[in-house]
């Protein structure tokens, strides 16, 4: 399998056409910006520091993959399905993540600033020290997600499900909580009461 940009894109397209799952490949450090690789399926893929900015990965599926420090800025990730993956240090600034599922994944120090995660899922994911400044999390299902020390300044959390989520140390200035479920969620002392006044 070719390890260059065009070779990898062609490989993904062939696998997609055949309905096959790409397994156990390493494509770290590749530049796949502006690539169209929607609906691909991959398991156990290593893709550290990969550049996927402005790429189309809508309806793709990734299981147990490592995207540490990768660039997804301005990408179309609508309805993507990510499970048990590493996304620590990844940049999703202004990405389209509508209806996306990023469940039981490790997302430490990731950036979701101005990203649209509306109607998506972050169930059981660890998002500690990440940023969601001015992000749209309308109707997100983030049950039991960890937002410890996360910056949610100006984030839209309307009608989100944050049951059992952990917001310890989180920055929540100007976040919009209308209709959100915060049952059994953890907050710093006195913060829950402030949030409840904005529900």
From TrEMBL:
Gene3D superfamilies, per database record: E3 ubiquitin-protein ligase SopA
Spans traversing the lipid bilayer: none
Keyword Repeat: yes
Keywords: Repeat
Signal peptide: none
Pfam families: Pentapeptide (PF00805)
PANTHER family the UniProt entry points to: THYLAKOID LUMENAL 17.4 KDA PROTEIN, CHLOROPLASTIC
Protein name, per record: Pentapeptide repeat-containing protein
Lineage of the species this protein comes from: Bacteria, Bacillati, Bacillota, Bacilli, Bacillales
């Amino acid at each position: 399998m070719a390890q260059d940009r065009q070779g990898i894109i062609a490989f993904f397209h062939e696998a997609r056409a055949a309905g096959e799952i790409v397994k156990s490949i390493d494509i770290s450090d590749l530049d796949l910006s502006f690539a169209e690789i929607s609906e691909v399926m991959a398991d156990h893929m290593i893709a550290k520091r990969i550049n996927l900015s402005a790429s189309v990965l809508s309806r793709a599926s990734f299981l147990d993959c490592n995207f540490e420090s990768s660039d997804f800025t301005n990408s179309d990730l609508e309805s993507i399905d990510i499970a048990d993956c590493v996304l620590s240090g990844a940049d999703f600034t202004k990405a389209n993540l509508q209806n996306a599922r990023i469940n039981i994944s490790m997302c430490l120090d990731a950036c979701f600033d101005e990203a649209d995660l509306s109607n998506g899922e972050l169930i059981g994911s660890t998002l500690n020290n990440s940023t969601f400044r001015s992000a749209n999390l309308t109707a997100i299902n983030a049950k039991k997600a960890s937002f410890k020390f996360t910056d949610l300044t100006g984030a839209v959390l309307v009608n989100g499900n944050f049951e059992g989520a952990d917001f310890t140390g989180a920055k929540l200035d100007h976040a919009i909580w209308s209709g959100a479920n915060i049952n059994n969620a953890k907050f710093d002392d006195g913060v829950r009461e402030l949030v409840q006044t904005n529900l």
